[in-house]
Amino acid sequence: MFPNDDDGLVLQMLKDEGIDFSIPQPLDFAISCPDKRSAKKILKALKREGFTAEIEEDEGEWSCYAFVVTHLDYDTIVEIQERLHQLATPFDGQSDGWGVMVVPED
């Protein structure tokens, strides 16, 4: 049903678990950053583009996270990742996957 890549496999797993794809879900997209300075620049670029975002440091590794509430749709997820990649690349960052905190059904 989904393409045979990392994004497609995760979406298929979520579908197999019975997640309701008709309900928008909160997704967080990770961007790995080489250092704090780059993370701050990426954060600024994301916010300028209208993303809700934050930076985080974990044991010397810097990441920037963009938060989007959207439907679990393959094309939408790939499009968001591509946009984040475009914004992060000038600052030596790179898109590093996504996650979802599933909204429970009522």
Automatic annotation (TrEMBL):
Superkingdom of source: Bacteria
Annotated Pfam families: RraB
UniProt xrefs under InterPro entries: RraB-like_sf, RraB_dom
SUPFAM superfamilies: Hypothetical protein VC0424 (SSF89946)
All copies of domain Regulator of ribonuclease activity B, residue ranges: 5-100
Protein name: Regulator of ribonuclease activity B domain-containing protein
